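Annotated sample (chain length 294).
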Amino acid sequence: MAAENETANEEARKKASGYHTGAVDVVMSVDAVAREAAQIAAEAPKAEELAALAKGEAYLTIDKLRAGYGRMEILHDFDLSVGKGQSLCLIGPNGAGKSTVLHSIFGFTNIFSGSITAGGTDVTKLKPNDKLRTAGIAYILQDNSVFPDMTVEENLLMGGYLKDTTDQAKESAEQVFKKYDRLAARRGQPARVLSGGERRLLEISRALVMGPEVLLVDEPSIGLEPRFIDMVFEILDDLQHGEGKTIVMVEQNAKKGLEFADLGYVLVSGQLAKAGPGDELLADPDVGRLFLGG
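Output written by the structure step:
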C-alpha cells in the first residue's frame, strides 16, 4: 500500500502545473532563468534589425537609452523601434526593466543619456503632461487606478484634464460612450460597482479621451478573470487595427502578450536580449523554455 501511495504521489507531482503551462519538473528557478537569459543577451539584435522589424519608418523610437530611478541605472543602452499602428510586447524575468521602459517613455524616470522620439519629435525631456498633450503618448496604469466613489462618467472626464475646456472633455467622453455600450449603461453609477473587466475598460477609455497615438499599457490582464482577459485584448486589438493606435505593453502572461503583439522584445538585466515577430518568439525554444513554461 505504501508503494502504491508513493507512486500516486509521484504522478501528482508530475501533473502539478508551474508558471503558465509548464510542469513542476521543467520549472526553473528565477536565478537559473536570469543566467541563461544573460547568455542569450550576448547576441542581442542591433538597432538596424529593430528598425527593420518596424517595417518602414518607426513611429516610436528609443536610441541608446540609459535610464533609471534616482542614481540607479536600470536600462543600459536600450534601443526600441515600433511602427505606426504596430503593437509590441515586452517580456522577461522580474526586474529586467520592462516597466522602466514604459516609465521612461512617459517621463517617470531619470534619463542619463540617449533619446526617445515619437512621430519624429524628440520627447526625451518632455514632462508626462506634455508627452500626452503634444506628443499623443498615453499611459494606462495597472489595475485599481479608477476612483471608486466617483461615477463612471466622472472617472472618464478625469482623462480630459488637459483639454482646453470642459466642453471639449465632455465631447471626447461622449465619443467613448458611443463606442462602449458597457460604460454608457453605467455612466451615472459609482465605479466601484464595475466588474474587473469593466474597470479595466474604464482605465483604457479614460486614456482615450485625449486622443493619443501611442498607448503604453502596463499589465492589461493583471487581476482579471480569464473571461475578462479576452475582452480586454479584443479592445486593444480594435484600438490597434481599427483606430491605428501604436501599442507598447508589458504583460505578465507572456504567452498571451506575444499571441497579441506584432513584435516581442525579451529584456534581461535592463538590456534587450532578443527581438522578433510575436509568433516567432512564441515558437522560439529558448523563449518557451525560459519564459513560457514550456
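Annotation: DSSP finds 13 helices and ten strands in the chain.
Annotation: The chain has one domain: 28-291.
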